[in-house]
What does this fold into?
Amino acid sequence: MSADSDSLVDRLLSRVVDSGHGESAIERQHAELKRAKLLQRLSQLALLGVIAMLFVGSLVMVGFWREEWIQYWPEFVDALTQYFPPKVYFDLIPFVDLGRYYQFMTEAGLVGEAGITLAIALAGTIMGAPLALLFGILGNERVTPFPVNFIFRGVMSIIRSIPSLVWALIYVPLGGISPVTATLAIGTDTIGELGRLLTDELEEIDDGPIEGISSTGADKSQVIAFGMITQIVRPFIAWAMFILENNVRSAVGLGIIGAGGLGVTLSIEQQTFQFTNMMATILFIVLLVLSVEMISQRTRSYLREGDDEERLSLCQLIVGFPERMSDSLLK
Amino acid sequence: MALRIDNLTKVYGKTTALSEVSFEIPDGNFAVVLGESGAGKSTLLRILNGLTEPTSGRVYLDGEEITNSRSDVGMVFQQHNLVEELSAYSNALTGTLNRTGFIRSLINRQPIEDRELALEALETVGLLDESGQKVSSMSGGQQQRVGIARALVQQPDLLLADEPVASLDPSSAETVMEYLRETADTRNLTTLASLHQVNIAREFGEQFIGLKRGNVIFNGHREELTAEVLDEIYGEIETDELREETESTALDDSIQRSDTSIGTEV
It folds into this structure.
């Protein structure tokens, strides 16, 4: 097989490149470059072939090719019109019937449900963050000697390898299918995720303050508190905000298995085929997640020093856009 | 207190950073260690502060061998080594860590005498009004003065300064050195500073110790620090490098100046 492909390559090569004898150095070099280029192309083709094979193989495994496509298609189109109920405004403009979304949002009390989802995420994050800080610091080589620090890193890795959904399943005997369980699950997940980020952050801190504090005769715990932790306070808050963003999404997911909040509403409406209501809930989730993201991003950019562009308010960003655009064009 | 160094040797693998270094600094003297980079200046100071363990040799302060050197020896670093997130006052207060318990230091409950000491030290370096300011927002010269204040709050028997002005512009360097010298004089504090700018060393030092490849090759007063001695300490190559260094600083200055002129136009 390999011999065959080798000879194929040779034949191809000899056709493309006249393996010239007795020609000038430039021509030889040219031929050599062509050869290298051809080999590169062939290996790229081979790589593409492998990816295509993996793709097709995976699709076969998930049973992607089936006749039900045709059977289900009208159903999906029907569902789509329920997801986005059409309405003609002012007898003129056809658009989605926003009134029906709004009606469900008030009827089902989605604001309250969103409050529960947010509370799960917040409580879980605040519960997990101090432990993440503790594990992150204990996992650092400067604080804990080499083999021991890997115990803490290992614990964080194990926590991380289990999705929060599975943590919730583990905690069900303790808290039942309730927001309590979801909070515990998210708290646990935060230890792994945030702890890992802090470990990386601690690897990059400056030695100067550590040495400075050591030089005053401070003991080890004081050196850690004043020389190391002071340096990661900002990154810690920034990463905690980032994890909070993720945790809001996780809290929605946990709701779907019944742990409370918007996720529960979502799964109930889906199971009772109330597709318009389901889409209203989804839109509300988008609204919630985007708001949390916006707050988190503003906080993070505020924490990032010397990044003036990011500190502009939304109004300034919009009003000042044409000017900054022309500025950057003319520079 | 008088400092006596006795046959101090430090070996890193195959390189000898310090080889049987011995000298004395009389009580209250302001001594300067001179030497090219790699001569062993930093190693010497770090050993005196206990940040590095010597291979052999002894250090005596006032006739007594020092053991718990970090608390008794204040140190000022080239890169200041302050906690940038904290205020000048809090940084000065870290000088009391060696006599404050962990919890007490964490919740900022130092005894009133220590707090007064911190403010007093900041006043000494002319930063009393800036004591609430975050260190990261201060200039390099101001930061270095906070560094001096921190060392003073330790109430040390010996003050060390490792290249205290090497990363400062000339006028800040002058100011910092003035504060350092004045403080040492008023408190009669034995001081050992390593400096590579010969003119600054000459201006502020009382006693000069020349190090070359880990050996003391000169120990004397200002009058004895002649051009020949300097040539011997730095060698000819080093003087060339120094000249290049000054040229590149001049270039940097001119670039900076052109930058600011563009800034004013806009």
Q: What stands out?
A: The first helix of chain B runs from residue 41 to 49. Residues 10 and 55 of chain B are 5 Å apart (CA to CA). DSSP finds nine helices and ten strands in chain B.
